[in-house]
Amino acid sequence: MVPSLFLITTVELNLIALMDAVSTAASKPSGEGESLQTGAIATFLGVVRGENLGRRVLRLEYEAYEPLAVRAFARIGAEVAERWPAIRLGIHHRIGRLEVGQTSVAIATCSPHRVDAFAACRYSIERIKQIAPIWKREFFEGGDVWIEGATADPHNEEAKAEAFRRACA
Amino acid sequence: MRIKVYLFARLCDIVGNNEIEREVPIGTTVRMLWDNLIADFPSLEAYGESLSSAVNAEYARMDVVLNDGDEVAFLPPVSGGQSAM
Question: How many contacts does A have with B, using Cβ atoms within 8 A?
């Protein structure tokens, strides 16, 4: 079975499966492309932090509009391919209840060269936070709150430019 | 027309349900549907400026005209946005 490049799941994230997915996507149908095209795989893991804004965090609960979230990931993949044509991107995001220290998001970029792999990986996490319809509810000592950041607008070119700026800083 | 409405995060808390159905007249836009919801759930109004919407699981503008059976999602601001460097 070919692992999914873009996935929302309630189970523990598997970085190796994600790396397999981007390596497979980068290889040619003959199977010989993988070793020829891949010079670097960069990965990013987002982890539930035990502190936020001075509060002791107990756990997070993530919610997603799953079909749109998967499409948002694919859109980010297309943006990455436009800027860095040789890159293959994979994004797996976990939803549901997550404890401190658990991984909420995993990103992998596969590239002939490390510079682009790192840049595309950074770009992708910035874009996920801008346009993926995913919300987190923080349970802290004394209460809980939905964390609300940016209005999700995939056509906001200013936000996209800011993600590129951070990726290439 | 019958429209299925999905609500997420705080919007779901306000309405008390993540999925409701609304009967609306032909020609209704996403924004008219939203205004229609505000009439029943006034606390939603505070989200008018920061809202995103989707029709049939694609981001859509508020002036899109709906068709019978459409699925509309109202999306509060997403979790990112904080400039954690």
Answer: 83
